[in-house]
Model the fold of this input.
Amino acid sequence: MRTQSVTYFTEHEEEFVNLLIEIGMRRTVAKVLVYLANTEEATSRDIERGTDLRQPEVSIAMNYMFGRDWLKNRESKAMSKGRPVKIYSLAKPIAKIMDSIEQEKKEEARHRLEQVKKLRQYLPK
Done:
């Protein structure tokens, strides 16, 4: 048997995940984002182990991240026979990703304020 180390979240990283969830990010996406922000690159299996998520959850989170151009991947020849292994990393620095999240949240807040103003039109005078 071979030994392999697994990376787990620190208390600080758990807090980062929880803050992302509180601002409306899906739990799975938040965990994968924080995990990849703290590692150079990782396989899907590494991400599953490090985030304590199941394979379908990781896959859905990564599809969301690919859709936002936050994620990139490359193929690496497997050590044994079989399919090549995909290795994932963030396509942008975490600061740029946070900037895009901030912009998205500002836009959402602006839109909601507009809706509240529109609701006021329906109040009796």
Observations:
- The two ends are 77 Å apart (CA to CA).
- The chain has five helices and three strands.
- The CA atoms of residues 34 and 60 lie 16 Å apart.
- The mean pLDDT is 91.
